Each structure stands twice: as C-alpha cells, then as structure tokens.
Amino acid sequence: MVVVILGLAGLAGCDSAEDASTSKTSGQASVSTSSTVSASTAGTEPSRVESLVVDGVWGVRIDRMGGSEDPEEAFGVLPEARYQPIENGPTYRVVISEQGSRASVEGTRGTTQVAVRGRRTSTTDEQAWYELTDAFAGGRFVVWQSTTGLQGELTVYGSGRPIISSERGALIRDTSVSSSPATSSTSMLDQETETARAEATLREFFQAWAAKDATAWKALLSESRRKDMNIGDWTFADLDRVEFGVVVAAPEGIHSYMTYGRGSTGGVNRDHVRCFRATIAWYHKPGVVGPNDSGQELPWMWFLVRDGDGNWRVDDWGV
To answer: Which of 130, 146, 173 lies at the terminal end of a domain, its last residue?
Structure first.
C-alpha cells in the first residue's frame, strides 16, 4: 500500500516548501482562533459533533471535489462554492479511535492508494478537526453536521501550493462491522481500533528514532524489550539520519512472532500483538562502517505488543 502523500509530493515538484510552510502557518492561525472549544477538555461536555463522531468504522462517500489556491482561505473552512459535484467518487474507509481523538482514512482514488492518519486538534459544535500527522506537507480531515447528516472532508496540503486535493462527501457509520463480542477476546471493532493505536505508536517510535531522541525511543519499547535491549552505536551515535518507508499492516507476520519469536516465550496474548511492514534505511556518518550499507533499504517487519497498562509498545523488529 502506497501512502498517497508520497505520490502527491511528486506532483508538487520542487516548489518551495518554505513558502508553503509560511502560508500554512498563517492560515492555520486563523483556524485556531475560530475553534472556540478545545478537543476533549477535562471537565467539559463534548461538543455536538464530538458526541456524534464515536469510535468505530465509517465510510466517507466522496461526491464533490474542490479547494482553493488562496493561502488566506485554503487552511480554513472553505465554503461549498469552492467545490464541484462529481460522479462515481471513491468511498474511503475511516476508522475513528481513542474516544474520537484519532482518525485514519484509507481507500483508492483511481490508481492511487490513500492512507493517512490524523489527530483531533479542535472541536466546536459545528465541526471536529483532525490534522494529518503523516502527510508530507500536512493536511486535514474535518467532520461536520449538515442538514442531511454528517459530512467529511479530506484535504491534502502541497509544497509550494496551498492545496493539492480536497474532497468532500457524506460520512456514514459502517454497520457491517459488529461491535458485539466476537469469538476472540476482542470484537472486530476493537481489533480495528487497537490496530490503529498500535500503528500510531510505531509512527511515534519512528519519529523518535529520526530525531535521535533516545529517551522517547526507549519509552516506546515494551518493558521486556527495554530490559534486554543493547543500544549499540549504530542506533544513534554513528547515525547521520534514518529514513522509514510506508507503514502497512501485516497480520500474517504474527504467526512467526508467536511461534519462533519473542512471543513464543509464553505469556503473550495473540490478540495483543500487531505486526507491520516498513522499510528502514540508515545513513551513517562519514567514515563509519555499520552493520548495513549506508542508505541500504531493508524490508523490515515491526512487532508491537499491548503492555499491562493498555498501551502499545514496540517489542521486536527485523527481516
């Protein structure tokens, strides 16, 4: 699965990212002032839209496309006049998790696969706003209540231009996914939610590694892994930078982890294990000879377990 942001970055060409960043900051500042109710503020009642956007699997049926090239309005709520109806638009799968604070959007637009994640940054009675956390130049997923029901908008920002794509459509709960207990210890809905949470943890782990933040990196390891982890010089000291590829769920890898890997030692509940695929490439400092060639892309698998505190942690990785 290819994250659409990567492909869209190519469409943007080599325009100045600095210009886009400046415009984005300016636009987002105006959005912040219009969002008068913060997300999940302790001790307050949820907003009207927030109470409707509950955890679960949804679908957004795209029926109009548009956007704006004006940086003064592109990063705020655009009027419907900026959009045109389309026929046979895609339907994206949306998973809302962590009490409505996270959203993932996946699907296919033509030959392009879409896979983005967002974290809710603000809510008002009229809308819930999610900033995309894994987009090249940023983006948003917005939910609001219309006279006909909930609506969703997926907008991807560009580098050197405010918006690359902006799509809107009805947001409808997927009732085919049951929330009643399944044969396993967790329901299908719970499994979807937990997979999204595990993936978010893995992305945070990647960010900490790329930032050479050893403290944050260690904190995202499972308790058992943290105890026996030998952090060699290759991890941080000899590293110029590290790059990661697209994260793709790989449940087929759980069997090997449970049979031959760290999960085979006992005490690990299979329902509390998630596996993902993502390439890694180390770039060593000049003169450093590492365990792998500098820049070599390795097709690694990443295993996460849910610790006793209910949070997902990285437990193992490798080919």
So the answer is: 173
Residue 25 CA, chain-centre distance (Å), reads 21
Task: Say which DSSP state 204 is in.
Answer: H
Beta bridge partners of 153: 142, 168
The contacts found for 78-83 with CB under 8 angstroms, 24 or more apart, are 78/166, 82/166, 83/166, 83/168
Q: Which two tokens stand for residue 36?
A: 């008068």
What is the domain extent for residue 221?
188-318
In the chain, how many domains are there? Answer: 2
C-alpha 130: how far from chain center = 11
- % of the chain residues with pLDDT over 70: 78
The answer to whether 62 touches 90, Cβ cutoff 8 Å, is: yes
Domain shared by 30 and 58, yes or no: yes
Averaged pLDDT, 61-83: 93
Q: Which two tokens stand for residue 216?
A: 């944050």
Query: What's the pTM?
Result: 0.50
